[in-house]
Amino acid sequence: MWSSAEIQQATERWVADMDPAHFALLRHxxxxxxxxxARTRGESFTGTGVIVRLDGDRTYVLTAKHNLHVAGSSAxxxxxxxxxxxxxxxxxxxxxxxxxxxxxxxxxxxxxDGITADRGYDVALLRVTDRAFxxxxxxxxxxxxxxxxxxxxxxxxKAGQTILEIRSRVDARRVVTNGRPFDRLEDPDAENHVLLQxxxxxxxxxxxxxxxxxxxxxxxxxxxAFLDATHEGYQDVFVFDATEAGTTTAMGDSGGPVFxxxxxxxxxxxxxxxxxxxFYGNRTDNDKNGPxxxxxxxxxxxxxxxxxx
Length: 309
Prior knowledge:
Number of strands: 15
Strand content: 25-35%
Distance between the termini: 42 Å
Number of domains: 1
Structural class: alpha+beta
Order of helices and strands: HHEEEHHEEEHHEEEEEEEEE
Helix content: 10-25%
Radius of gyration: 18 Å
Number of helices: 6
Strand order of the largest sheet: 10-7-13-14-15-12-11
């Protein structure tokens, strides 16, 4: 079982050993979703997402589908109207390496599993169509578009490229359950990935939101498991033991990216989006005030996220 101190020590160690440009890329691909909800007298919403594709003036962001429900719950928005309500109230906030943050308006929300219900594949694709926003994101890539992050997609920042390298849920399952992820990845450390998890949620109990991260070595997680479906009906979920003090999630982290980082610190793969805590295959935990017993993220693969409208 990981303690809070162990998580902090592991995080500091792995970040210190990473290529600084690589860490910066992961950090700045992580975006905050922020808005003032229209029907709740100024109540605010904060979530997290990750930029996965650029195509001309279009920037595509993945986040958790359940964020639509969180944003619409206080206003009691009908399920059929949740996507439109979220689109109208919430902006994507991109933090560049230097200069002022850039805010983009969501012009389309696509649900890979085709259902709005708070179950199924907990992934939503957001589209921002804005030339200045896309230009700011594209500037993350070094000259020529080459990065040290995604070996199969060195020009991810060019039109039409995506950073979703894991092609199938079978491959994704092998990564998070510590098996060899790819036939083409034969390095001896293929089974020793570190999960690097980013979020823009609460960083203090007093209610301060901001960017934060955690690092966890896959082969040291307590009782890791890939669930085809949780008892609530969420699909393709990876869970592992956690405690209240050592949790890797906080309010506002939902939808944040989880990367599998190779021990060399120079190669990583986008493997998931933060779901939350206390998810199980054989029961449902409805006690929101109960202690944290596990953490969970939705496992990503390009066969499940195919549409970029």
